Amino acid sequence: MPSARLPIRTGRVPIRTGRLVLRPSTAADAERAFEIQSDWDVTQMLRMARFPPDRQVMADWFADHEQEWQAGTACRFAVELDGRMIGLADLDGIDGHQGELGYWYEQTAWGHGYAFEAASALRDFAFRDLGLSSLKSGHAADNAASCRVLLKLGFKLIDIVEVFSNSRGESIRQCRYLLEAPGRAS
Ligand SMILES: CC(C)(COP(=O)(O)OP(=O)(O)OC[C@H]1O[C@@H](n2cnc3c(N)ncnc32)[C@H](O)[C@@H]1OP(=O)(O)O)[C@@H](O)C(=O)NCCC(=O)NCCS
Fold first, then answer.
1. Is the separation of the CB atoms in 73 and 94 below 8 Å?
2. pLDDT above 90: percentage of residues in the chain
3. Residue 103 lies in a domain
4. Which residues lie below 8 Å from residue 8, measured CB to CB, with a gap of 6+?
5. Which residue(s) pair with 77 in the sheet?
6. Local structure of 178: helix, strand or coil
7. Is the pLDDT of residue 185 over 90?
8. Which residue among 60, 103, 111, 176 is buried most deeply as judged by most CB within 10 Å?
């Protein structure tokens, strides 16, 4: 199915929050992402990722990010703290007026509110700048931290389904969520 193009005003410019900079990711971020996803505790929660990560696959994926943005299908950001990439937050699967929120961080960055801070900014970017009308997201049923992030953002649980996790190599229970843009929620 063809994907909608983003409005022209959404240039690849960084988003600044209180403590973080969300910088549109580039091919140069692949090695750092490879390091972060070499941690099983991170990657077991990413059902589309492979473990251990493959350096070339990672490089190819990051090399595509600029093109994905231009095509209007995904906006991905390296999340920086004091100039160092600590993770990635993205909107992908953008199609029509819907997209999907995702994020992952190195373990030493957990528990400081960074995931929520970055995701809040990305949610606002999605609704205000991209003009999306709803966001999907999801987490493995055993991912309590991500559950908390999504609920704090205002996401509502839609259902729990069985899906295959590439990283775990088995089926898992996946909690799926939806967030409507302000003024659209029923
Ligand atoms: C999920 C993840 C992004 C959370 O990152 P984080 O930086 O620790 O999250 P925050 O610090 O912003 O915490 C957000 C909320 O979750 C809560 N939280 C954090 N870890 C938790 C845990 N293990 N159990 C329950 N709640 C938890 C925090 O207390 C906070 O809630 P509060 O403000 O009410 O106290 C991070 O653990 C991660 O990258 N995990 C691996 C990849 C991943 O799971 N990605 C998401 C896939 S769906």
1. yes
2. 90
3. yes
4. none
5. 24, 89
6. strand
7. no
8. 103
**Mean per-residue pLDDT, 106-133:** 97
Residue 91 in any domain: the answer is yes
**Cα–Cα nearest to 158, from 181, 137, 183, 134:** 137
Q: Determine, yes or no, domain membership for 109.
A: yes
pLDDT score, position 9: 53
Does residue 164 lie in a domain region?
Answer: no
Q: Residue 148: CB partners within 8 Å, gap ≥ 6?
A: none
**pLDDT of the residue at 5:** 55
What is the rounded average pLDDT of the residues 83-89? 98
CATH number for 36:
3.40.630.30
Contacts (Cβ under 8 Å, ≥6 apart) of 11: none
Alpha helical stretches, state H, 44-143: 55-63, 65-71, 114-124
* Atom 13 of ligand 1: nearest residue by CA position: 113
Question: Which residue is closest in CA terms to ligand 1's atom 6?
Answer: 110
| Cβ atoms of residues 91 and 75 within 8 Å | yes
Instruction: Give the domain extent around 125.
Output: 15-132
User: CB under 6 Å to ligand 1: residues?
Assistant: 42, 45-46, 103-105, 109-116, 139, 143-146, 148-149
Residue nearest to atom 23 of ligand 1 (CA): 145
Query: Does the pTM of the predicted model rise above 0.70?
Result: yes
Domains of the chain: total: 1
